[in-house]
Model the fold of this input.
Amino acid sequence: MGVFTYSDEYTSSIPPARLFKAVILDSHNLIPKLVPQLIKSIELTEGDGGAGSIRQINFAEGSQIKYVKNRIDELDEKNFLYKYSLIEGGELLHKLEKITYEVKFESTPEGGSKHKMTSTYCTKGDIVLTEEEIKAGKQRVLGVYKVVEGYLLQNPDAYA
Done:
């Protein structure tokens, strides 16, 4: 098994508490409304939303992927930290044992936030992932974050 870790960092003018509430805590309500052409629904299928819970993301009709399931490994609302693992679905899981993600939002001196995301891919056997496979997934996630950021900029009272 190979282990590959990738980290990215993005900045936003939105404070971390607002972004965390919108992108993480209320994603099941907000994201399907903002990008229904991509995400049909996000449902909690097991647990109460905390560590150990399972969330299923159902993609829109015509998507190459029907759904994915994520297990919430850690949810720290005080420190704006979210860790989860992709456990079912997705185009890469036939090559992987698992994918784990760590998402952290931090304050910037300007009043906005810095978003750090670390992805760890554990491959099956001697399979090697291509940069294109990794990049495609990261671009989809970043695209959704940018839509949420745009919504928060247009609606300054939302998630305040």
